[in-house]
Automatic annotation (TrEMBL):
This is ACT domain-containing protein ACR. Residues 12-86, 334-370 form the ACT domain. One of its GO terms (molecular function) is amino acid binding. InterPro entries: ACR1-12 (IPR040217), ACR2/9/10_N (IPR056816), ACT-like_dom_sf (IPR045865), ACT_ACR9/10_C (IPR056805).
Length: 380
């Protein structure tokens, strides 16, 4: 095809502080590729300031301008992006549309990280989460409890992006980094493959009152989100079929937030919608504008009013409530509840636990216990 595979992804690092790093992807296309790329960028803790994408249906060209962060492992980022890019044979035959049978890849093995900490110091959970992110371990479930003597029992159920946690070398690497992060060389730490009784555990929130779960997991916006700074009037989603004979134009104007492009791409991927052209820009006042030329998997524009309304409604929901957050008082304790939307494939939003523990750390809030499960929001 006249292109070396490694050159399918190019990363041009910022020349000076304040400049953006430019990530260019030039590869065969597939429905949902934009979501996969944005997910990886979000996994590395990076924010997209601007983006452009175009495709002819078989080959795509995508450029992201991202806000640079110190110590970003750009070579590893490039490697992870290359892993989700389709092979060249796909462009030579036909596009691989995102269809249900491709949505359920083999589930990775789940491992249990178990260790005791002698004291429940401030920022402990965030230090652990930060170390696991650097190790490319994805947190699936967490159980943390504080004993009366102040000792903390941590149970982290994780999957390994590198798929090497079954090896002795990888386990030793993880344990070493955890001990370094917690500044405890004598930290007792164990890693074992979680059994089926753990991996098949309930994903529900049966311990919550129905009034809370109905509000947090509802696919409809409640009255408190229909007005104000973060209300419906702060998000504009317009559909126009008059500008192109074969594409539907979707125009979005809203307030910026971390992972905004990922939220839009995830929604379109779940609806099996292909993007033929896309443009995104966030101004210095954090106001975002996005233009997308899209079509359905059958190659046709979206003309059904019900489908248009459903898509616009879901986009507004995801832009207004990328996470569902609530605070509940239970006797002497205060509980912070966070629900995490997920893709149809079952993958949750990247780095949610990291961001939560960071926020709690910033506000000097100590955590006494944690129960983290996965809840998946699926399009109707």
């Amino acid at each position: 095809m006249g292109i070396i595979y490694e050159d399918a992804v190019m990363v041009k690092e910022a020349d000076k502080p304040g400049d953006h790093t430019v990530i260019t992807v030039n590869c065969p296309d597939k429905t949902g590729l934009g979501c996969d790329l944005c997910r990886i960028i979000l996994l590395f803790g990076l924010c997209i300031a601007r983006g452009d994408a175009s495709t002819d249906g078989k080959w795509c060209y995508i450029v992201f301008w991202v806000v640079s962060k110190p110590a970003t492992r750009w070579d590893l980022l490039k490697k992870r992006i290359l892993e989700v890019c389709p092979t060249f044979t796909a462009a030579e035959s036909e596009i691989y549309y995102y269809i249900p049978e491709f949505q359920q890849p083999k589930q990775p093995d789940v491992f249990l990280l178990k260790f005791w900490c002698d004291n429940d110091r401030k920022g402990l959970l965030h230090d652990i989460s930060k170390a696991l992110c650097k190790l490319e371990l994805t947190i699936k479930r967490v159980k943390v409890s504080t004993a009366p003597d102040g000792r903390v029992m941590d149970l982290f159920f994780v999957t390994d992006t590198r798929e090497l946690l079954h090896t002795k070398k990888r386990r030793e690497e993880v344990i070493w980094h955890l001990k370094a992060a917690l500044e405890d060389p004598m930290l007792p730490c164990e890693i074992e493959l979680a059994g089926p009784e753990i991996t098949a555990c309930s994903r529900g929130f049966s311990f919550l009152p129905s009034s809370i779960t109905e509000e947090m997991f509802s696919l409809e916006l409640s009255a408190k989100y229909t007005s104000g700074f973060l209300g419906l009037d702060s998000v504009s989603v317009i559909v126009d079929n008059s500008l192109s004979p074969s594409h539907t134009l979707v125009q979005i104007v809203c307030q910026d937030h971390k992972g905004l492009i990922y939220d839009v791409m995830r929604t379109l991927k779940d609806y099996n919608i292909q993007i033929s052209y896309g443009r995104f820009f966030a101004n210095p006042k954090r106001r975002c504008e996005m233009d997308l030329l899209i079509m359905q998997a059958d190659g046709k524009k979206i003309v059904d009013p019900d489908k248009q309304n459903a898509l616009c409604s879901r986009l507004r929901m995801e832009l207004l409530r990328p996470l569902r957050v609530d605070v509940v008082s239970r006797g002497p304790d205060t509980e912070l509840l966070v629900a995490n939307p997920a893709e149809l494939s079952g993958r949750g939003r990247p780095r949610v636990f990291y961001d939560i523990t960071l926020a709690l750390n910033i506000f000097n809030i100590r955590v006494f216990s944690v129960l983290r499960l996965i809840h998946c929001f699926l399009p109707s």
